[in-house]
Amino acid sequence: MLCLQIVLAITLLSLIFIFQFSKNTPLAKLLPTAYFRSHELYDKLTQVLAENKGTILCKSSWFTGNGIIVTTDPANVHHVLSSKFSIYSRGSEFRKAFDFLGDAVFVKDLDEWKEGKKFTHAFYKEEEFHKSTPLIIDRTLEKGLVPVLDDVADRNEVIDLQDLFSRYMLDATCLLATGFDLASLRVGLPVCPLLDAMDDMAAAVFWRNVLPESVWKLQKWMGVGKEKKMAEACLVLNRKLEDFVTNKEEVAGKDQEGFDVLKFYMGDESRKKTENNKAFLCANIMTLFFAGRDTSSALLTWFFYLISRNPRVQKKILEEIEQNLSPPPKRHRFAKVEELSKLVYLQSALTESLRLFPTAPVIIRNATQEDVLPSGHRVGKSAKVILCSYAMGRRPEIWGEDCGEFKPERWAGEKGGVKHVGSNSFLAFGSGPWACPGRELAFARMKGVVATILHNYDVGVLEGQSVGPSVSALLNVNNGLKARVSKKWM
Question: Is the pTM above the cut of 0.70?
Fold first, then answer.
């Protein structure tokens, strides 16, 4: 959800071609790829940007308004997201597309967002929040991931790793957000209405960004297409969230073990006196659900795809686990944050996966006034500026001539940690006031999952399956990632 504001480049650019551009325009080179080989679109976009010094311009027209600029220039990125962030907003289309989030801080304009995040992000500073992290990781490993993989291994069945990680992250996020366990990751992979509802909502948001507003609003009014599924999904999710809030209200004031965000929010006296407090709570918990599930599950899937093609990396990760954590030669779960923090090479490998396959392939901002980018391109009022993080991860000027290789060693810091790369070159966690506050939590969860899987199981990604980016707002693996697993310890 963190990145669902992204308007997917494939459709936006394709529509521009249809209405405006000649075959001599650099962007027009993308048209055949967009329609006939969509899984290759981001690679083609990377090529076209490289041929045009990292920035391409679509001039203004009746369709594009005051124009669209696509860029990977680090100076432009810093300009838009940091030094001049106050004049580059998410735009009114963003809030309309996310109307189901109601009064959530996530969809607020900048000034309101700054004020709101003081409350909604405050839990990251709580000691009890940090204490809860390893407990939740261990519980979701013990109750969900390990039994499911054991069962799949015993039956010699094929499993979709992307579905596995999506369920894991949803359960872990629900425990953190509400204190309740959805138990979507259990043996047999039970039907989970909430999981399906979130997928339907994500798909509808994507099409809201693809279609003209008049079209998707007509679909909404008629109750057809993706908007029909959106309406049904909103009912499922809102009912579940209201149940969480109601159940939490019933036990308010009583001793409640453990930390959860909903309890933290409800303990704030200033919010209790405001109107629509329940709707506010539901909207912000919904935001956490999307943020906690989507990005991490996609990244873990790409990670396992990449190490399946680079076995030396997997070998080094296992060596690091052995050297730093000295696990017993038997089944073991990795959940202690202080232990996981020692897995520096593993974090480098995850970060390298994120460089090559950023879960947010593009980020879009709208100019609220005229401006000039450091590259010299003029930006009209209301123009769109698209920052292509996928192409930035493949810029030789930033990463060297080996930028197409999966090489975790490029993240090795001088003092033994993971090297810091400025957000103007690496956009994975946002920049400026929009920087992601959950970065450390995300890495702890992912490292716990990876270390537990690699120590206890052999994972074989099936040969012959077509693996490529999905045509969606998030860079998921198209059609998932099928694999077989076998136990290392009996």
Answer: yes
